[in-house]
Amino acid sequence: MSQSITRQNFDEWMMPVYAPASFIPVRGEGSTLWDQQGKDYIDFAGGIAVNALGHANPDLRKALEEQAAKFWHTGNGYTNEPILRLAKQLIDATFADKVFFCNSGAEANEVALKLARKYAHDNFGPNKSGIVAFKNAFHGRTLFTVSAGGQPAYSQDFAPLPPQISHAIYNDLQSASELINENTCAVIVEPMQGEGGVVPADPTFLQGLRELCDRHNAVLIFDEVQTGVGRTGELYAYMHYGITPDVLSTAKALGGGFPIGAMLTTDKFSKVMVVGTHGTTYGGNPLAGAVAGRVMEIINTPEVLNGVKQRHAWFVERLNKINQKHQLFSEVRGLGLLIGCVLQPEYSGKAKLILQAAAQEGLMMLIAGANVVRFAPALIVSEAEVQKGLDRFERACERFLAGEQS
């Protein structure tokens, strides 16, 4: 007989690096989840922008089950058909000539930064090692990527950190230009900061970074872990801006919930990564390749990408109506289905209280820092689910405001 599991078991058995919700989801379908007690939740968190096609998607289940009946893993002494097909899909759909597969966004950013340093060292000498990133960025939790991320709270306890990483102000080209020089090997930037507050980049800012990197022979890396695979209404956000990076990292939605990450680049840069320079045991396994290939087939279509833009309009229209009534937010911002509501100054630091009120109302959502509530639902969330979820969100806002006034 299986053991009964409760939320308390997390506190007893798990390393306390998370503070999960008080309920445990056990079943999902589309954009609805049910907990152990049978209560339903509309899912606007999307597994942190991962579950792009919702829960228990029948097409993804079929792809996984078909491959699971064949073989699961061989290691990278051998290649496999599903991952090669996925590589060709990504190459055909983007600027890239070559792909490296891994298991997460952090790993994709790790190899992107390693590639940039190796390219610079091979072509310009050992002094060209500087990396310019941005304040409030998030690039992962490895020591290298957490150092590139511009949030000291995530890195300061793990010093000494990898050296020669500096941080400019996001959307401030002058700040970046003061740091980018002949010793810069890479600039890493999110086209829209996700964890940093759902802040879209200004087109002139990204264009300026492209020009600075060209001038100083630095590799321009776009971290599209959160913005990629249809999230902004384009397959990748660089397409929204019309600015092409040298290297792109992708993960999260790429597997629709199955762990996979990838780094995309051109022949010019990929050729420095020869046999033995990098690797991963699980990266590029056939299970991930089969599922992600089906994800790409579904999402990289006009129907789904245009549908993201339509759903953005549903969200923003309703959120603005809610805000007109309650005056809780100073701004609603974002692209596609990555949307942030910025709290008014008088509610500063209280985004998590709204998150908790939402859970009580049967809504799963996210925060992006202490001052922004964030939505990253499935790209195919239905209009009925959007309205039902936003009804619950409005009640959560009312619950929060009533608590503030009591």
TrEMBL record:
Say if the entry is tagged with keyword Cytoplasm.
Answer: yes
Q: InterPro entries under this entry?
A: Ac/SucOrn_transaminase_bac (IPR017652), AcOrn/SuccOrn_fam (IPR004636), Aminotrans_3 (IPR005814), Aminotrans_3_PPA_site (IPR049704), Class-III_PLP-dep_AT (IPR050103), PyrdxlP-dep_Trfase (IPR015424), PyrdxlP-dep_Trfase_major (IPR015421), PyrdxlP-dep_Trfase_small (IPR015422)
Reported EC number(s) for this entry are: 2.6.1.11, 2.6.1.17
Choose one Gene Ontology CC annotation of this protein and give it.
cytoplasm
Q: What does the cofactor section's free text say about binding?
A: Binds 1 pyridoxal phosphate per subunit.
Q: Which GO terms describe its biological process?
A: L-arginine biosynthetic process; L-arginine catabolic process; lysine biosynthetic process via diaminopimelate
Q: Which reaction does it catalyse?
A: N(2)-acetyl-L-ornithine + 2-oxoglutarate = N-acetyl-L-glutamate 5-semialdehyde + L-glutamate; N-succinyl-(2S,6S)-2,6-diaminopimelate + 2-oxoglutarate = (S)-2-succinylamino-6-oxoheptanedioate + L-glutamate
Q: List keywords of the entry alphabetically.
A: Amino-acid biosynthesis, Aminotransferase, Arginine biosynthesis, Cytoplasm, Lysine biosynthesis, Pyridoxal phosphate, Transferase
* Annotated CDD domains: OAT_like
GO terms for MF:
identical protein binding; N2-acetyl-L-ornithine:2-oxoglutarate 5-aminotransferase activity; pyridoxal phosphate binding; succinyldiaminopimelate transaminase activity
Q: Does the keyword Cytoplasm belong to this entry? A: yes
The subcellular localization recorded is:
Cytoplasm
Q: Which domain of life is it from?
A: Bacteria
Q: In which pathway does it act?
A: Amino-acid biosynthesis; L-lysine biosynthesis via DAP pathway; LL-2,6-diaminopimelate from (S)-tetrahydrodipicolinate (succinylase route): step 2/3; Amino-acid biosynthesis; L-arginine biosynthesis; N(2)-acetyl-L-ornithine from L-glutamate: step 4/4
Q: Which cofactor does it need?
A: pyridoxal 5'-phosphate
Q: Which Pfam families does the record cross-reference, listed alphabetically?
A: Aminotran_3
- Where does the chain bind N(2)-acetyl-L-ornithine? R141, T280
Please tell me where this protein is predominantly located. cytoplasm
Report the family membership. Answer: Belongs to the class-III pyridoxal-phosphate-dependent aminotransferase family. ArgD subfamily.
User: Its biological function?
Assistant: Involved in both the arginine and lysine biosynthetic pathways.
Which NCBIfam families is this protein grouped with? arg_catab_astC (TIGR03246), argD (TIGR00707), PRK01278.1 (NF002325), PRK05093.1 (NF003468), PRK12381.1 (NF009047)
Quaternary state and interactors? Homodimer.
The protein, known as: Acetylornithine/succinyldiaminopimelate aminotransferase
What's the source species for this entry?
Buttiauxella agrestis ATCC 33320
State which gene encodes it: astC
